Each structure stands twice: as structure tokens, then as C-alpha cells.
Amino acid sequence: MGILEVKNVGKRFGGLQALGDVNLSVAENTVHAIIGPNGAGKSTLLNCLVGKLIPDTGSVMFDGQSVLGRKPFEINQMGISRVFQTPEIFGELSVMENMMIPCFAKRDGAFTPNAFRDMFKDREIVERAEQMLEEMNMADARDDNAATMSRGNKRRLEIGMCLAQEPRLLLLDEPTAGMARADTNNTIDLLKQIKDERDITISIIEHDMHVVFSLAERITVLAQGTPLVEDTPDNIKGHPKVREAYLGE
Ligand code: ADP
Ligand code: MG
């Protein structure tokens, strides 16, 4: 049994069958990638895992418990954290303030305006946020305005904010989209470091094959809402169906 078990998941938008019949098993403490052409249903699948969408059919089990019917914040508390396609940080706040928010959420179950007013008086939160910034190699950027950072560093902060919640499953939707090569490579290194240092399962949707083949232990190829193959990177590279459907050969 994987930490994540997706069985017969289907999702329709009006006349469009975005997900047909998705079966997927992600083993604990591995890096799993989902690849597939634009419109294949990758983001829809992720949305079904985090409670943003409710599938029409099938089941989604995380660590033996169903996520279906739970609200996104409840699923988050179960141990699933998600990094979105566009960075979701608070541009008007400092790097440190951004990092403190998930630390409050983790400890108190919510981040309230009250907590915000006196946030720096909360030693426990300050220390935890500082420790997370250290781990992310962002201690020097502590007081920088988050909006002024490079795309790569925004992504680094956002991943750190997810990790502050101590998830067991980290989901990333095209984390290197729109990045320059140097930022992409930094993100690959960061994810490798996270994998090495923690007990965590990572499931990543990615367009960039360099990223996928650098990180993933298993790859699922999704085409038109249905998994085409699921295999190791080496086998995926040589798979005729994949070359045809995805690599366009
Ligand atoms: P991917 O992430 O693989 O590029 P998506 O999951 O975003 O694909 O989309 C799969 C299909 O579902 C696409 O044809 C897309 O246009 C459609 N779709 C996605 N979200 C919605 C929605 N909220 N309403 C209607 N159609 C949608
Ligand atoms: Mg997408």
C-alpha cells in the first residue's frame, strides 16, 4: 500500500471528461512525477487530491484515510501540502513574516489577525521560522521584501512555507515553470536536499524533462485524463507509447 492511493478517479467538466479512470499508487518516501501534455488533466488530478475539486467517481486515500469530502485545510492538516503553479507568497511582507505564517498555522491550527499584530513577540514562532529559513538557506534574506526576490527564491520560500507545516506528502505543480535554467537547477538541488534530509514523499507535476529525470524514482504518464504508463525514468525514456504521445516522436 502506498501512502497515496488513487483508485478509479474520474472528473468531468460539462461535456469534457478531464479525468477518465485514474489509478495511481505513490510509495512512501519516494519522489514520484506525473508528466503529460498540456490539458492531460495533471492539475485537475492534483486538485482532486487536495480537496479543491471533488471527483465524480473513485477514491483517494492518504495513509489509509479517505481525503474525499474533506476541506482543503483539513487535508492539509492530514499531512498533504501543495505548491501551486504560481508562487503564493505575500509580496508585501518580509521573507521572515511569510515564513512565520505557516508556523502559526501549524501550531495553532489557524493564522489569525490577532497573531499577526504581535507576531514577533512569540519566541517559539520566531525561532521556528528562523530555523526554517536556515534550512532553506534563506537566513540572509530574512528582512527582504518577498516581492523583490527572484522567481527561484520566491519558489524556495514557498516550498519552505509548505515544509514548515511538516507535511508527509509534498505536491508540486510545475515548480520550475517560467524559470531561467539557473533557478531551475537550484530548485532541483533544493528538492534533492529536502528528500535527503526528511522523511517525505514528493509528487511532482512537471513539464521540464530535465527536472523529471533528475528527481523522480517513478513516473506516471497521463494522456487525455488516463494514465498511459507508470514506470522508472529509464523505462519511460525508452517507452514507444510515451515517445509517441508525449515526446512527439
Ligand atoms: P494539465 O494540468 O495537464 O495541463 P488540466 O488538468 O489543467 O490539464 O486540464 C485538463 C482539461 O480540463 C483541459 O481540457 C482543461 O481545459 C479542462 N479544465 C480544467 N479545469 C477546468 C474547469 N475548472 N472547468 C472546465 N474545464 C476545465
Ligand atoms: Mg496544469
How would you sum up this structure, described in words?
The chain has 249 residues and is an alpha/beta fold. The chain is 39% helix and 24% strand. It has 10 helices and 10 strands. The strands form 2 sheets. A 6-stranded mixed beta sheet has the order 6-7-8-3-9-10, with helices on both faces. Strands 2-1-4-5 form a 4-stranded antiparallel beta sheet, with helices on one face. A hairpin with a 2-residue loop joins strand 1 and strand 2. The longest helix has 17 residues, at 181-197. The radius of gyration is 18 Å and the shape is globular. The two termini are 35 Å apart. The mean pLDDT is 92. It binds adenosine-5'-diphosphate (ADP) and magnesium ion (MG). Magnesium ion binds at residues 42-43. The site of adenosine-5'-diphosphate (ADP) has 11 residues, from strand 2 and helix 1.
Task: Give a concise summary.
Helix content is 39%, strand content 24%. The protein has 249 residues and is α/β, with parallel strands linked by helices. 41% of the residues are buried.
